[in-house]
Write a structure and sequence with these properties.
There is one protein chain. The chain is α/β, with parallel strands linked by helices. The chain folds into 2 domains: 6-157 and 302-383, Rossmann fold (3-Layer(aba) Sandwich); 160-289, 3-Layer(aba) Sandwich (Rossmann fold), CATH 3.40.50.2300. It has helices at 6-15, 20-25, 51-70, 90-100, 115-128, 140-143, 159-172, 186-201, 220-228, 240-251, 272-275, 277-281, 299-313, 325-345, 350-357, and strands at residues 38-44, 79-85, 106-110, 131-134, 152-154, 178-183, 209-212, 233-237, 261-263, 285-289, 363-364, 369-370, 388-392, 398-400. The strands form 3 sheets. It has a 7-stranded mixed beta sheet with strand order 7-6-8-9-10-13-14, sandwiched between helices. Helix 5 links the parallel strand 3 (106-110) and strand 4. Helix 3 (51-70) packs across helix 14, helix 4 runs parallel beside helix 5 and helix 14 (325-345) packs across helix 15 (350-357). The chain is globular.
């Protein structure tokens, strides 16, 4: 369905976007483009097992937009969101991009959690010449995509670095024979490459690699093979749905045969803790994160954002109330960087904004100080210094583990 159809209007109401967006887009609207809001498109999974990730990204976008608009907007215009739910389906994402591209006032599209979806979207993004901002999907080829000029910019982990970080984290905990348990997708393959290279670099002996498929209901045989091959830790690459299956399978094993799991962060894009807290309490699980409202690098800025989050979304004042926090934090910083690029370009022309993103100066963000965030040769804003291990506490909040593991 078109982005200006019913789901679009419903999405704007849900986000509290200003009424003039609808007026400007209604048939026969006479408002000049200069009076229309500058649109940011959200193309992410907003429902299903990973829907929490897309909703977290939406919240980060909206909180930043609120701040930009309260300060006068950008080039005298307000920012607003249009959105569509790609449901984690690559073909649907491509259709959404084609639909969004029809809007002259749309300057950028923000993606979601799924690396396979982002990879499939690259051709459409570059065909239309639309800035694509990545707040979550970590596959290395999303950014290192071969396009010149490259329209993809990311605040997220990069698998080339994340795989090495996770293997190093396992070694620091004393594990010497990791087994890789990977989702059979481009994201899983990206991490296989990174983790294998890290094990080779550190002369770590692998217990092997096992693969599982989307929506697979039983992954116990793959776990059995890795443990039988001597794995003393499982290195997991999964999203929430399949991750929950792995955790239940591991928790069902006799206690003496359970091995710890160190996971990539895809599992935090859904509400898996609420689905089976008892299984998670029976296993040793840690996972990658890049930001925590419990231990933020800039406490005052984090406290202001947390207060705004709780006020807008009627959540309690605890940092644990922020679900899928990396999605919210990354999206929040991306909007502020985009606003600066539009101002610097003096235009909403997509090519000019793309060029400006490569030449932004120092910016003190929520996640880190970006100095600069991007360059013509580097479109990833984060590096391994931003990575840390976290875990679920007894209430399901994501909390950092001890600094000795980082």
């Amino acid at each position: 369905m078109s982005a200006i159809g019913h789901p679009f209007r419903q999405g704007l109401r849900r986000l509290g976007a200003i009424a003039c967006v609808l007026c400007a887009m209604a048939p026969g609207a006479a408002a000049a483009k200069s009076q229309q809001p500058i649109l940011i498109g959200l193309n992410a999974a907003l429902s299903g097992g990973t829907g929490q990730s897309g909703r977290a990204i939406r919240r980060g976008l909206q909180l930043a937009i609120d701040e930009v608009n309260a300060a006068g907007g950008v080039l005298g215009r307000r920012l607003a969101i249009i959105e569509d739910d790609n449901r984690g389906i690559p073909a649907r994402s491509i259709d959404i991009i084609d639909d969004f591209a029809k809007h002259d006032s749309l300057v950028a599209i923000v993606g979601g959690i799924h690396t396979p979806v982002a990879l499939a979207s690259l051709k459409a993004i570059h065909r239309h010449g639309i800035v694509y901002l990545g707040p979550w999907a970590a596959g290395t080829p999303i950014v290192d995509n071969g396009y010149r000029p490259n329209y993809v910019f990311r605040i997220s982990a990069r698998d080339e670095l994340a795989g090495g970080f996770l293997i190093d984290a396992a070694r620091k905990r004393g594990f010497r024979r990791p087994g890789l348990l990977l989702w059979r997708t481009g994201w899983g393959r990206s991490n296989e490459t990174a983790m294998t290279a890290a094990m080779r670099r550190t002369e770590t002996r692998s217990a092997g690699t096992q693969w599982f498929n989307t929506s697979q209901r039983d992954i116990s045989e793959q776990i059995d093979r890795l443990v039988g091959a001597g794995a003393d830790v499982i290195m997991l690459v999964a999203n929430a749905t399949e991750g929950l299956t792995v955790f239940r399978n591991m928790a069902a094993r006799p206690a003496e045969t359970r091995v710890p799991i160190i996971s990539h962060w895809g599992i935090t894009g859904g509400n898996l803790f609420e689905q089976d807290p008892e299984a998670l309490k029976r296993i040793d699980l840690t996972f990658l994160q890049t930001y925590s409202f419990f231990e933020p690098p800039f406490p005052e800025k984090s406290a202001r954002l947390l207060a705004a989050y709780c006020a807008r979304y009627r959540a309690c004042g605890s940092p644990g109330a922020v679900v899928s926090p990396v999605g919210t934090a990354h999206a929040y910083d991306l909007v502020h960087l985009l606003a600066r690029a539009i101002e610097q370009a003096g235009s909403t022309d997509r090519a000019k904004v793309r060029n400006a993103l490569e030449r932004l100066g120092r910016y003190e963000g929520l996640v880190r100080v970006y100095d600069p965030p991007f360059t013509p040769d580097r479109h990833d804003a984060l590096d391994v210094s931003d990575f840390r291990l976290s875990r679920y506490d007894e209430r399901g909040a994501i909390v950092p583990v001890g600094s000795e593991l980082n």
